Amino acid sequence: MFVILVYDTAVERNPKVLKTCRKYLHWTQRSVFHGELSAAQYRALMTALRGVIDPDYDSIVTYSARSPDLIESGSLGVSLGGPGDIL
Amino acid sequence: MFVILVYDTAVERNPKVLKTCRKYLHWTQRSVFHGELSAAQYRALMTALRGVIDPDYDSIVTYSARSPDLIESGSLGVSLGGPGDIL
């Protein structure tokens, strides 16, 4: 599955959230990651993040599609870790 | 089409970027919007954003799918303007 993950977490937890996301996904842009994961990898990522965030304060949202072929990407301005490399 | 838009723009341009995105999409989370747009609306949004950002400094990335049915969403922690309302 193709996953886009966005996070909004407290500054003091950002490094741990970043490190966890980097194990599974590619960095797109400030607080955004994307990549292909198996369902098991997706569950493992969610479990790892659950252990890192404060659920009363932080927020993580994912959007997923069955295949990257179902997702088209576009961009304006500078390309950061943009999706161009894998889509 | 279903569109997820993430932006990383200079602080001084954020209000204009936010205002432009809000005309077309729902706010998901800090610097992330989503929503259903026609192809014409998508082009109009991109054109409007092009007039607002500094292309040498700012970055906007979009992910789109033909239909919201192709996208599943998930979340951890607090729900902000989360996608639950329309997905």
TrEMBL record, chains A, B:
<comment type="subunit">
    <text>Homodimer, forms a heterotetramer with a Cas1 homodimer.</text>
</comment>
<dbReference type="GO" id="GO:0043571">
    <property type="term" value="P:maintenance of CRISPR repeat elements"/>
</dbReference>
<keyword id="KW-0378">Hydrolase</keyword>
<dbReference type="GO" id="GO:0046872">
    <property type="term" value="F:metal ion binding"/>
</dbReference>
<dbReference type="InterPro" id="IPR019199">
    <property type="entry name" value="Virulence_VapD/CRISPR_Cas2"/>
</dbReference>
<keyword id="KW-0255">Endonuclease</keyword>
<keyword id="KW-0479">Metal-binding</keyword>
<comment type="similarity">
    <text>Belongs to the CRISPR-associated endoribonuclease Cas2 protein family.</text>
</comment>
<protein>
    <recommendedName>
        <fullName>CRISPR-associated endoribonuclease Cas2</fullName>
        <ecNumber>3.1.-.-</ecNumber>
    </recommendedName>
</protein>
<dbReference type="GO" id="GO:0004521">
    <property type="term" value="F:RNA endonuclease activity"/>
</dbReference>
<comment type="function">
    <text>CRISPR (clustered regularly interspaced short palindromic repeat), is an adaptive immune system that provides protection against mobile genetic elements (viruses, transposable elements and conjugative plasmids). CRISPR clusters contain sequences complementary to antecedent mobile elements and target invading nucleic acids. CRISPR clusters are transcribed and processed into CRISPR RNA (crRNA). Functions as a ssRNA-specific endoribonuclease. Involved in the integration of spacer DNA into the CRISPR cassette.</text>
</comment>
<dbReference type="GO" id="GO:0051607">
    <property type="term" value="P:defense response to virus"/>
</dbReference>
<dbReference type="GO" id="GO:0016787">
    <property type="term" value="F:hydrolase activity"/>
</dbReference>
<dbReference type="InterPro" id="IPR021127">
    <property type="entry name" value="CRISPR_associated_Cas2"/>
</dbReference>
<dbReference type="Pfam" id="PF09827">
    <property type="entry name" value="CRISPR_Cas2"/>
</dbReference>
<keyword id="KW-0051">Antiviral defense</keyword>
<keyword id="KW-0540">Nuclease</keyword>
<keyword id="KW-0460">Magnesium</keyword>
<feature type="binding site">
    <location>
        <position position="8"/>
    </location>
    <ligand>
        <name>Mg(2+)</name>
    </ligand>
</feature>
